[in-house]
Amino acid sequence: MAERIAVVPGDGIGREVVPVGVDVLDAVGAFEFVECAAGDAVAASTGDPLPDETREAVLDADATLFGAAGETAADVVIPLRRALDSFVNVRPARASPGVDALQPDTDLVILRENTEGVYAGIESEIADGVATCTRVVTERASRRLAEFACDYVAERGEAAFTLAHKSNVMRVTDGLWLDAVEAVAADRGVDAEPELMDALAMNLAMSPESYDVVVAPNLAGDVLSDLAAGLVGGLGLLPSANIGSGGGLFEPVHGTAPDIAGQGVANPLATVLSAAMLLGFLGHEAAAADVRAAVEAVLADGPLTPDLGGDATTTAVGGAVLDRLA
Ligand code: ATP
C-alpha cells in the first residue's frame, strides 16, 4: 500500500511552496497525499485554526509535509508537534557551491529541543504592564534529546556535539539542561562541548566551519537556525524535520513571509529539501539523495528566485528541480 503523506500548506507562501514539494515527492515515489487545512484562512472561515480532521490526518499519516501558519502558528504547529510527540527539530544548514553565501564553509546541523523552554506557552500578565513567561525544562526531555543527539552524531561517524546553554544566568533551568545532556553524552561516550549561547552566536557567525552538530534549547535553537540560514543564503534554503514517537513532520524553517506572499516568487527549495528529509525518514534514501542532487544542480545552474539574486518564479524553480529528476 502506498505510504500516506499529510499535506498542510497553511498560509502565506506555504500555499506556494508546498505544492512544489508535493510535485517532487510525486516524481520520486508512489505516495497517497491527503491535503489538509490549517492556519489563519481556515480559522477565519471556521473559527478553528487546527480542525480535528487535520489533526487526525497528520496522526494517521506516515509523514507530514507542512508549509507555514501565520498569526495562528502557535495554535497550529505547536499542537501538531505535541500531538506527534516531536521532541526534536532537526535543522541542517549547508552552503551550496552555487550560492553566494556569507559563509561558504558552513555545514552544520542544529538539533533544537522542540517541546518546552519558553515556548511551553505558559505566559501571564500578572499586573497591569507586567507580564511573565515560565520556562519549562525537564530532565526527561533533555535526556531524550541528548540520546537522539548521540545517535545522530554516531550516524555521521562523529563523537562530539556542541551544547548551547546559558547556565551562568539561568542557573536552575539551564543547569538542569546542561547536567542532563552531559550525563547522557558521558554514558554514551560522546563529547558534549558546552558553549554559552551568546558567544556561540558570535562564533557561528564568524567561523561556522568549526561547528558540526549543535544541540540547543528551544528558543536558542530557533534563533541560531535563522542565524545559520543567513550564513548559507537565507531562509529560502533551510529545511527542517520534527521527529518524535508519533511520526515526522517536515517543514521549511521559514514562516509565511507576508512581504512576498501571493507574488509567486517564494523560494521553494527549503520545502523541497524538507521533502528530501521526509524521504530519508521513510527510508527512501536513494530518492532523498536524488532530490538533494537536483537542488544542488538548480542552485549551481539556475533558475533562482529573487532571494538568491535571480528573477525566476516559484513554479519555474520547481519545474527545474523536476526536470533534473526526470
Ligand atoms: P514567522 O514568524 O512565521 O517566522 P516571519 O515573517 O517573521 O514569519 P519569515 O516568513 O520566515 O518570517 O520571513 C522572514 C524574511 O525571509 C522575509 O523577508 C521573507 O520574505 C524572507 N523569506 C522567508 N522565506 C522565504 C522564501 N521561501 N523565499 C524567499 N524569501 C523568504
The bound ligands are:
adenosine-5'-triphosphate
- Helical fraction: 40-55%
Strand order of the largest sheet: 2-1-3-12-11-4-5-10-8-9
Rg for CA atoms: 19 Å
Specify the overall morphology. globular
Number of strands: 12
Question: What's the number of helices?
Answer: 11
Query: How much of the sequence is in beta strands?
Result: 15-25%
Distance between the termini: 24 Å
> What integer is the average pLDDT?
96
Say what oligomer this is. single chain
Biggest sheet character: 10 strands, mixed
Class inferred from helices and paired strands: alpha/beta
* Helix-strand topology string: EHEHHEHEEEEHEHEHEHEEHHH
Query: Which runs of at least 5 residues are low in confidence (pLDDT < 50)?
Result: none
List keywords for this structure.
326 residues, alpha/beta, 10-stranded mixed beta sheet, two-stranded antiparallel ribbon, 44% helix, binds adenosine-5'-triphosphate
